Amino acid sequence: MFTAKPNASNAWKGIVENAWNLREGVRTEVGNGKRTLFWYHNWATAQPLSSNELQLGDENEDQMVWSGSSHGNFSLKSAIAIIRKEAENERDSFWDFVWQRNLPQRINFFLWLAAHERLMTNANRFARGLALSAACTICDSTEETTLHLLRDCSLARSVWRSLVPHPEQAMFFARPLRN
């Protein structure tokens, strides 16, 4: 969805890192239905579709509302609550997934390092004064972070494209690594 430049502020990096979670908080209230994309917009409520009465008329425009608050307006407090809830769910489900598998300890350790941005990527090595550059040595086009190394590098992308079904690739490459 978005990427943060290596020299971006911590605030912007935080926004970019959590953009996916924040996107989940946006919901479409269907008015006339002209701007709502059935398959892509979050427009359905928690009730069964049969109980929702969609009255499509020309008078009301579709509008985006914030589902994190009762009045539909965005607030930083509600956004932080959504991010915290997602982080707790991700942390629990991610570690449940990892530890409930009978994986070799070195794989569990690798996953822990990756999840905590502790892999010795060029970006981490450069930050510690152990490398001359933070750039990826394979594609030489961007900073080699954990996400870049495992998913976004041209070599990693070619591997993932052969493994992830084509209809799911756009979502796969847009989501955070842990998802």
Automatic annotation (TrEMBL):
<protein>
    <recommendedName>
        <fullName>Reverse transcriptase zinc-binding domain-containing protein</fullName>
    </recommendedName>
</protein>
<dbReference type="Pfam" id="PF13966">
    <property type="entry name" value="zf-RVT"/>
</dbReference>
<feature type="domain" description="Reverse transcriptase zinc-binding">
    <location>
        <begin position="74"/>
        <end position="160"/>
    </location>
</feature>
<dbReference type="InterPro" id="IPR026960">
    <property type="entry name" value="RVT-Znf"/>
</dbReference>
